Amino acid sequence: MEIRMRFFTEYPNEAHIFFEAILQPQEKLRDRIKQILEPFEKINEKIYRSAISGITLRDGITEEDAIEYFRQMQCMFNGYFSSFSYRYMTLDKQIREHEINLSKLLDFMLYGLAKGGTQK
Description:
By secondary structure, this protein is mostly helical.
């Protein structure tokens, strides 16, 4: 995540192109953008696999289940950021918010929300 943010900070024009292509692709370019992003998606999958390699999955959850969960959450998360409420933010603010919230989401996905133990 730090590398992504550093890249986006150092190359703001490329960051804008990247986020517009992901969050608000033009309909006529959607299929082509998907093709172009295939290598990026493979990198994401490597990151997902690396993230789950250091944790013990619950019984009945396979690595492929976890990878598919990551993919679905990424799709929903990006859909959320292309929603109506975020369209009124500047792209710079959208990028910052996306990256901050993505880090939080990944933490929640891997480690949950609740602290272990019983509540009183």
